[in-house]
Amino acid sequence: MKFKKKLGKAFNHIKKGNYKSGISILESLRDDHSNKVSVRNLLGIAYFKIEDYESAYREFSHAVRLDVDNPELQSNLDATMCALVDGTRKFETTEVANWFEI
Fold first, then answer.
1. Measured CA distances, 71 to 51, 60, 76, 77 (Å)
2. Is the pTM of this model over 0.85?
3. How far apart are CA 14 and CA 99, in angstroms?
4. Which one of 26, 32, 49, 102 has the fewest CB atoms closer than 10 angstroms to its CB?
5. CA distance 66 to 92
């Protein structure tokens, strides 16, 4: 399956709340496309949604290193750091990863 098709499938799983299915697809994409910001950000969002903040932090950190001028990525990373520190959910999104086209 091609990259965009897999990414779209993962996006749809996450949008429907099927986070584990989305994560599974994204982890396989990350293995082959480790420098794709879209994969790292969406994977971070999915990890955040299942409250795996350490994994979310890892993915958002990598995404920020790949695209240092993207304020949404920095915001995602900041929210994850807050969640790690005080355990609150300060990051909510209704349009998951709306900054990139699938």
1. 22, 12, 9, 10
2. no
3. 15
4. 32
5. 23
**Angle at the Cα of 67 (from 62 to 72), degrees rounded to 5?**
90
Tokens of 17: 């709340």
Q: What's the distance, Cα to Cα, between the start and end of the chain in Å?
A: 14
Give, to the nearest 10 degrees, the angle between helix 19-32 and helix 3-15.
Answer: 160
pLDDT along the chain (102 residues), means of 10: 92 95 96 93 95 94 95 91 74 41 36
Q: Other CB atoms closer than 10 Å to residue 50's CB: what's the count?
A: 13
Q: Positive or negative, the Cα torsion across 32, 33, 35, 41?
A: negative
Neighbours of 83 (CB within 10 A): 18
**Residue 11: CB atoms within 10 Å:** 21
Type of residue at 40? R
